Each structure stands twice: as C-alpha cells, then as structure tokens.
Amino acid sequence: MSDIPQRRVARTAKLASLPLGVAGRATVGLGRRMTGRSAEDVTAELQARTAEQLFTVLGELKGGAMKLGQALSVFEAALPEDSAAPYREALTKLQEAAPPMPAATVHKVLDEQFGRRWRERFTHFDDVPAAAASIGQVHRAVWSDGREVAVKLQYPGAGPALMADLTQLTRLAWLFARISPGLDVKPLLAELKERVLEELDYTLEADAQRAFAAAYADDEQIAIPRIVASAPKAIISEWMDGRQLSSIIASGSQDDRDTAGSLMALLHYSAPGRAGLLHADPHPGNFRMLPDGRLGVVDFGAVARLPGGYPVGLGRLTRLAVDGDADGVLQVMRDLHFVRAGVKITADEAMNYLGPILDPLREPSFTFSREWMRTQAARLADPRGEEARVGRQLNLPPSYLLIHRVTLGSIGVLCQLGATAPYRSLAEHWQPGFAHASGELGD
Fold first, then answer.
1. Given the DSSP bridges, would you call strands 136-143 and 277-279 parallel, antiparallel or unpaired?
2. Is the separation of the CB atoms in 297 and 209 below 8 Å?
3. What is the number of alpha carbons within 13 Å of residue 120 lying toward its C-beta?
4. Residue ranges of the domains in the chain?
5. Was domain 103-157+198-238 assigned CATH 3.40.47.40?
6. Segments of the chain with pLDDT less than 50
7. Which of 44, 63, 306, 311 has the largest CB neighbor count within 10 A?
C-alpha cells in the first residue's frame, strides 16, 4: 500500500464490507447451529472472526479507522474475557503496525518538509519504517552529528482520510456491540473527531514534546526524547531503544509489570504539574522500558493542556469520596456541574456510583487487574442496575472530558499489566486538592 487511500468511495467500500461480513457470518452460524454445534461455540467463533475482520480492516485503512482501534485497545481489560480473548492479539498488533509507505513516497514527504537536500542532514537514513501508526510512520536514521534519531512522517492525505473514516465509523458503531455487548464507541469517536486537526499539526506535537522533554530533563524515572528538527508534517527526535510495553503485558515478570505500571502512574499524575500537559494517548505502543530502568514515552500528538495542573476540584472530589463523605461528594459534584441543577440524586447514590471506582486510592498500593476492571465496567454498564441509572443522570463538563478518558485509559493499561502501584501516594503528592480536601475548588 502506498499512502492512505484517499478516495472516499474506496475507503467507504472497505468499511462497508464489515457489516456485510457480519451478516454473512451470522448466516453461516445459523447453519452450524442447525448441524448440532452448541450456541456458545458458534457465538465464540463468530466473535473471533468478526474481530479479526474488523481490526484487519482498521489496520489496513490507517487514518481514523486505525486510530479508533488504538484508542479501543486501552479498554480491552474492561471487556468480558470470552469477548476480549479472540481479538486481544489483533489489538496488540494495531498498536504499532500498519502497511508502510513505499520509499518513493517517503522521499517525497522529506523533500516537501526539509527541501531536496535533506539527505545532507543525515549520515544514514533507513527507507524501511521502524514503526507505523494511525497517521504517520517512523524511520530510523543517524543525524549529521552522529546521534541516532527517529524520523516521524505524516501519511499524504491523512487529514481527509481521518475525517472521512471517523464519520463513517460513527454510522457503523453498532458493529462493536457484536463483539462486546454494551461497548459504545460513539462518545470516543466524537472526541477523536474534535482532536483531529490538532493531531495532524506536527508543529503543535513538536512543541508539546519539547515541553515534556524540558520538564523531565535528566529525570531518573521518566525519559522523553528531545526534538532535533521539526516541520508541519515531520518530526525528528532522538531515537529511544527499549522493551515495548506490549511485550511486558504479554510476557513480563511481575517485577517488570509493577515497575512499568508505577512509572506510568507517575507520568499520569506528575505531567500536568511539571509540564502543564497530560499525555493523552496512553496505549501501550507509546511506552517502553529503557535498559536503565526509566519509562520512555513517545508520541505527543494528543495532549491535554492543563497550565494550572490538574483541577483542584477534581482532587477534592476524589478525596471526599475516598474518605466516605457522601454529603461533601454530592455538594462538590453539584459545584463542578457533574450534577446539573434540578437533577435529583441522593448523596448515598452518588457515593455508591463513585465508591468502587476509587478502590486504587484507598490503600498505599493497589493491584490492578482485568478482573477488577471488568467488575467495574459491568457494574456501571448494567442497564438494570442502580449505578447505570445514576450514571445516566450525571453530566461530564467538557473541561473534564479528556482527563476522564485518559485516566480510564491509563488505568486500563495498568490492568492489562496486572501491576501493583503506589497510586494513592502519587495522588497525594501530585494531585492538587487530594491531600487536603478543604479549601476553594479553583478552576
């Protein structure tokens, strides 16, 4: 495949093949049940084949289709095991794999971004990509001063393809419920569409990476590669070796898992206070453990800008809930507009909804697990349950939307790792309002 398929008809046809495939498999499944196979066996096979087709197409199309697959990958831990198992491997492959651009297209992008004499900037450039993602791919090279560098290039036509994909996928959101009943991707798609233009601007991404690199310069636990050069559709930064987080999820020792999870939690809590930014794309392909024990972080296209750090009110609300102050929780939820005026929710209902979600903050350390994540997801999604009724009455203000999504995504990765992490102590140190719940809410 060369660049992203840009003709809307071609891309729509690819995506349109998905429901046709589902319908065909359903017909085959009916036939197999009639020949005596159990409904459970047939359903499991249909889920596996649907997932395989779904994520294969998302990967081939790159753009918004692959970006959705990557975003979903961090929530895999919340899905029932019999649904998650068939396509966990497919999700992992999506995190850093996509058909590459040919060398001629790569050279054309470099010509446009750095001029036709771009080769003079390198002593070596590898035409074969080292990694590929949703809207760009990375090449390994050696800069003129001898430094190994990563050259990130945006696929030609990424912008129109990204918007077309997300629009089309919104119409096909029902497909994901075929894999896991209750999985609603429409809110995630809406948020991805809002952030498309920002992620396509590599100048903004380079600025965010520079801010992170400055905030964590010479840090003993977190490593951010420095920017060497940048252009609107290309970023050159220091190369970072290390073991992929997906590898640790698949086969890491418990010490590996605990170390990686603790450092991911540290980044999540400390970045807004240190850099005024929150890394907002927490899928495993963006993290690796370096040989010196630090957590390496890449890809800063999606960030939340929090110049004042985490909102004080969020820390205060969290602490009141952990301390069991139901009346205080409900009052802060109303003050922050999580509960709109006129909505009738009791303090006990608010606490019953929030309480179990905050288990990781109740003890000095918490062991995250897929089982815990699935329990919480099932509790909140059960349409017959009290928590689901309360959840439908709550409001998520726009200023908290990305923080909420990134927090859930980060916790999802910790659950995939099965890591034990000092979550509470990190919150006490880094989250404003958590250590002392009294005082003004702030912004």
1. unpaired
2. no
3. 4
4. 8-97+158-194, 103-157+198-238, 312-430
5. no
6. 1-9, 19-36, 42, 95-96, 181-182, 439, 443
7. 63
